[in-house]
Design brief:
By secondary structure, this protein is mostly beta strands. The protein is 9% helix and 36% strand. Strand 6 and strand 7 form a beta hairpin.
């Protein structure tokens, strides 16, 4: 029995990339750390908020490449000799990735009260009507 995908439908031409994006999204960091929210802040605006308690602005990096938003957090090792009676605040590094649709761009990021806010906006392409000339064969 062969695997049937939605891109195998004859009326869906050129959607192979969509299937790869869905596959990539299911593989990206399901561990739940750090916790995050995704909210719609306007008709074509979104915000991703990650809880990054203990991370400074210098400990965080955000990159976008090929429709993939990658957020990394890495803290310098704590060399002080401290004795914890309980250590519930994670100091581990993390990498969280999000797949962005075509036309979605990162417009800014801020760190505030232990939360990293990443603002996104969907840029609508200009609608173009194309007339195709039919030639005699």
């Amino acid at each position: 029995m062969t695997k049937m995908t939605f891109t195998a439908h004859p009326m869906l031409l050129g959607f192979e990339q969509l299937e790869r994006m869905v596959e990539q999204a299911t593989k990206s960091g399901n561990d739940g750390y750090p916790p995050f929210n995704i909210e719609q802040t306007g008709e074509s605006a979104y915000r991703i908020t990650l809880a990054v308690a203990g991370f400074s602005q210098d400990d965080l990096s955000i990159t976008v490449e090929a429709n993939k938003l990658l957020v990394r957090g890495r803290q310098a090792p704590d060399d002080t000799a401290r004795v914890f009676l309980h250590q519930g605040i994670a100091r581990r590094q993390f990498q969280k990735s999000f797949v962005l649709a075509d036309g979605v761009e990162v417009v800014g990021a801020t760190v505030e009260n232990g939360l990293l806010h990443i603002d996104l906006k969907r840029i609508e392409p200009e609608k173009v009507v194309q007339n195709v000339e039919i030639r005699k064969g």
